[in-house]
Amino acid sequence: MRKAFIQLHVSILLAGFTGILGKIITLNEGLLVWYRILITIVVTGLILLPSGLLKRGTPAWPQTMHMMGTGMLLALHWVFFFGSIKASNVSIGVVCFSLTSLFTALLEPLLNRRSISVREVLISLIPLAGILLVFHFDIRYRTGILLGIASALLAALFTIVNKQIAREHAPGVTLFYEMAGGFVCISLLMPFYLACFPVESLTPGVSDLIWLLVFSVFCTVLLYLLQIEVLKSISAFTMNLSYNLEPVYSIAIAMLFLGEARELNFSFYIGLALIFLSVLLQTKNILNPGST
Length: 292
Known about the structure:
Layout: H1 2-15, H2 18-24, H3 29-48, H4 53-57, H5 61-87, H6 90-97, H7 100-111, H8 118-134, H9 142-166, H10 171-196, H11 206-230, H12 236-242, H13 246-257, H14 266-287
């Protein structure tokens, strides 16, 4: 269990860079996600094919379709997430993403046919209060906020469904088929998307291509392999609650590298403390269930 929490927090640190890279890459959110998934499929395939794991681990057709459908949820989450960032800034996108734990606390019991945990809902309201203190929403960023909320809802659904898959299949195989599903989804939507949001060029420049490679290898392949492995040991709620630390990392990085400097006043530190408190409460409960 402790190993799972170490892997979880490594993945959160990697996730802290996703918003930054999404802002640095000049492609719009649709093309960014399309290229990210394509490169991820190629990299994952190169890892799996020599070992024969992809062939041996390929599930039955209904399970494959389940994986691909789950990958579609992930791809749509990414489009909304990066859309939120590009419509506003990194801070807005990652702050809205922190609503994922609240959506998970409400949706996971409904989808798994169990009663809603009042404790989980209350714990997920703690970081929500902290996040509101860390960053005061601005009505100028209304579009970014709405896209970010939709992104959080899709992220919650993805994690809940992905937990069921993670129990039964190898992480690499799961990632490959989920990315395949996401690629099909975005490819089918892309003509309509580009008709609504035309671009001058469909291909990334040299700088964008380099960042896309970094993005795909470290913040997609490595990150999601860690996530899938972690979901074998911990709940979707605990994972999404722990990911409330991602906005803290992302905002700090954005301040350093993207000029999104914000005054670290008293409310920031109170909000930061609340976010850490919520994660510590759930971590303590998982590692020492008899102490609560």
